[in-house]
Amino acid sequence: MSIPMEAHERTPETRVPRASPPMNDPAARATQIADATPAPNVAPAPAALFAAGVGEKMRATDLNFFYGKAQALYNISIRIPTNHVTAFIGPSGCGKSTFLRTLNRMCDTVKGTRVEGDVQLDGEDVFGLDVTSVRRRVGMVFQRSNPFPKSIFDNVAYGLRVNGGLSRAEVAERVERSLVRSALWDEVKHKLHESAYGLSGGQQQRLCIARALAVDPEVLLLDEPCSALDPISTSKIEELLLTLADSCTIVIVTHNMQQAARVSDYTGFFLMGKLVEFDKTEQIFQAPSRKETEDYVTGRFG
After folding, report:
1. Residues 113, 116, 121, 123: what is their CA dihedral angle, to the nearest 10 degrees?
2. Residue 144, class by beta-carbon neighbours within 10 Å (0-12 exposed, 13-18 middle, 19+ buried)?
3. Global pTM?
């Protein structure tokens, strides 16, 4: 298909062990990619990749994406597991953020773009669903925190009020629950009606996560959520992601390979608009099957 676009708990049996952070090879850093041609396409992850009892939440099949005449994604096919953390890594400009934004149709907002192929959410074509419904089910947190110029309470309650149907007491209960889930409640419960701009950068990012969680999304997309944060704030968000994955499917884009190794169950490596390899995180970092992946995770380029 071609779509034009305009302006719960994980058991020990189903949880995949985290990989050890990759070690860099400084001596190899000067090595460059000899061939600038887009990497060969990769087949969808085989069913055997997922442990017994692990379902499929989202699927992309032969997905191509264009900014005008420029193609940004080439034949992406992938299965994203339910209630696990999936990370996408790769050098700048490789297409990982563009792919992330197709999963909840955020690219609809960019004039002159076009997508070909299929993206499914629980077997339903996301391009055939109402876009508001898609974004309610598939929430997103951006690279830089973007709290609204409102109080902390009103930021979290925003989506609930837009959707309607809840009493004032129910909204208050959902706001508290979302702030608890985002590990922010204890820090802000005494100042809920103060401006969100008074929070630190790390707190603002967790507030944005709470705002996304308030409408109970089935999938949460995060586009480099820790890139502008200090190590302490980064650690808190990483701990938060591990907790949330028990009840929500998490997909994160990150430039930080150590972060991908710490928090994800599965990792996909993007290069020049193609998904080169997708496997269990420990496999990607310890014994990748593709040379391009090995070169990247060992620091030979990127």
Report:
1. 160
2. middle
3. 0.81
